[in-house]
Amino acid sequence: TVKAFIDSGSNVSAKGNDFVAVSKADGSGTNEQVKGVSVIAESAEDVNVFTANLSGGGKAGIAANVSVNSVKDDTQAYIDGSTINANNNSVDAGQGVRVRAFNKTDTDIKGGGVALGGVGGAGAAVDNTLLENTTKAYINNSTVTSKTGGVDAVSITKEIVHSTVVSGGIGGAVGLAGSAEVVNSNNTNEA
Q1: Can you point out the beta strands (E) in 58-185?
Q2: Taking the C-alpha atoms of 90, 33, 102 and 158 in order, what is their torsion angle to the nearest 10 degrees?
Q3: Distance separating alpha carbons of residues 42 and 156, to the nearest angstrom
Q4: Longest alpha-carbon distance in the chain
């Protein structure tokens, strides 16, 4: 869980008299120069799974490889129950308020099973990947004031899935093989 927030009746004044570098929170890995208030939450997960199975037998060989992967991230940036820039006198014209959340999940799954048998060989490989990420950027029950820099709430989720699942069955008379890949993506992205 990654959270960046202003809450619980906070009263924040940011006149924006100078620039500060903050993350764009868009997956580019770059910063931008801003004036005012920035609430930024970012998370990144790199999941690498490698599984293999080899089986042999005089008459029959059976190999099975099952991989189950689950990623569940919660990334939130928010202003809740607070006052931002209540007294907006003598502030810089570029003053703004930014609330941004970014989540990236990159999975690389490789799995396989090979069976060798004198008479028959049966190999199977299955991968099940479940992605359940929540990414939110919001302003709730708050009074927020800014100049020409504006007020924005942006939420971005980026999911990358690479999966290779192979199987083999080798036998003198019979060889059977089967592979399956299941990706279940149940993400929430709100701004």
Answers
A1: 60-71, 74-80, 83-84, 96-117, 120-131, 134-140, 143-144, 150-171, 174-185
A2: 140
A3: 10
A4: 87
- Rounded to whole angstroms, the Cα distance separating 155 from 144 reads 18
Residues linked to residue 135 through DSSP beta bridges, in sequence order: 75, 189
Amino acid code (one letter) for 50: F
Rg (CA), the chain: 26
pTM confidence score: 0.86
Tokens in use for 138? 């919001």
44 phi and psi, to 5 degrees? Answer: -145, 135
C-beta neighbour count of 54 within 10 angstroms? 14
Which tens digit of pLDDT belongs to each residue from 116-161? Answer: 998 988 989 999 999 999 999 999 999 999 988 899 999 999 999 9
Tokens of 175: 């060889």
